[in-house]
Amino acid sequence: MAEPYVYRNTRTGQTAEWPTRSVRLDHSPVWLLISAPEVEPEPVPTPEPPRAPARPVQADPKAAWVAYAVHRGMSEADARALSKTALMEEFGRDDQEDDDGPN
Asked: What domain of life is recorded for the organism (predicted)?
């Protein structure tokens, strides 16, 4: 059984237990709420991590290549400073390919 709400009459000392809050007693100047069940906070949904953008294709605008470069770790200022061709050369190969080339 859930914990009750307990009120005390400040004039008589009498206590009263209710299964829910009493609007009447809450608004009465002589009744004081002295005990209430703890309310568990509602869980806050965790946001999903942003999905990684797919590698753009050659026909995509420069903005798509900038976003992809930023996702891959380049600063936005540096990515914007490069041309689309330079971004494609740097980030246009497969993700699995080693940056240093074959060993």
From this structure: Bacteria
How confident is the model at residue 42, as a pLDDT? Answer: 86
Cα 103 to Cα 99: distance, rounded to the nearest angstrom: 11
Task: Give me the residues paired with residue 98 across strands.
Answer: none
What does pTM read for this prediction?
0.45
| Nearest-5° Cα angle at 85, 97 to 103 | 20
Query: Which contacts of 51-55 are long-range, i.e. CB under 8 A and separated by 24 or more positions?
Result: 55/91, 55/92, 55/95
Q: Check: CB of residue 16 under 8 Å from CB of residue 7.
A: yes
pLDDT for 27 beyond 50: yes
pLDDT digits (tens, 9 = 90+) for 66-86: 999 998 999 999 999 999 999
Q: Quick check: helix, strand or coil at residue 7?
A: strand
The three state secondary structure string of 14-83 is CEEEECCCCHHHHCCCCEEEEECCCCCCCCCCCCCCCCCCCCCCCCCCHHHHHHHHHHCCCCHHHHHHCC
